[in-house]
């Protein structure tokens, strides 16, 4: 079998181990001898201060993974709160429009007349159903619908001398022109229930708005108000306001960037990997097999 032999170098206390084969036993005992060798090396190995310092890596990755778990729960709670806000009972639009800054995602009730000659079109946009993009057919088509526009129409309020912007809803591409949907261009006074929305910064890789040609790619509230003469109030009409032949309301997308699950997997995986490497290389002091000295008699 193999037996462990200590080899001293240069008459110092530094030693290593080799395996010397004995012809009196069978080779099936080799795994046992290897394990004994590892235990012998580990018993004489001491973790240096720098080795303990390297524990910072697995500890830090574990802490970051735990932090992402907390962030994920917080983000999900925020989304749930926003969804609940959109389902609350509508309130009248405050007399002081500055108070609207506290009402994002809250439904409000307004009354007035649409100024159809100042319509704006934001798109291309997917049809939103229950807060998520959908490809289902609409009242405008029998087949699947993939792309269209949100119709933004100024509303002259009845109870005050103010104009606000209302996202009446979504129309497919072929109904972007208002002449293709005359039934939806109501002239009489209307009651609108809408969700308060704020200014939207330009998303990455999205083209700049072109107000001169009435091409809008994101909700730039300041530029829209400047073009239409409206106050900086923007409402997404709810499905309660749907008019036959008009845009489809309920185009409020409730979404926040939530990639915390992928971060959790990444940090905990790094923690497990670095912990294993530290335990094997630093604590046990194991070295690659090709660094062991194997003495085999010829």
Automatic annotation (TrEMBL):
Cited CDD domains: SURF1
Annotated organism of origin: Agrilus planipennis (Emerald ash borer)
GO cellular component, as recorded: mitochondrial inner membrane
Membrane topology annotation: Multi-pass membrane protein
Gene name per UniProt: LOC108744216
Any GO BP annotation: mitochondrial respiratory chain complex IV assembly
Function comment: Probably involved in the biogenesis of the COX complex.
Keyword entries, A-Z: Membrane, Mitochondrion, Mitochondrion inner membrane, Transmembrane, Transmembrane helix
Segments traversing the membrane: 47-67
Annotated localization: Membrane; Mitochondrion inner membrane
Organism domain of life: Eukaryota
Family: Belongs to the SURF1 family.
Protein name: SURF1-like protein
Pfam family, one: SURF1
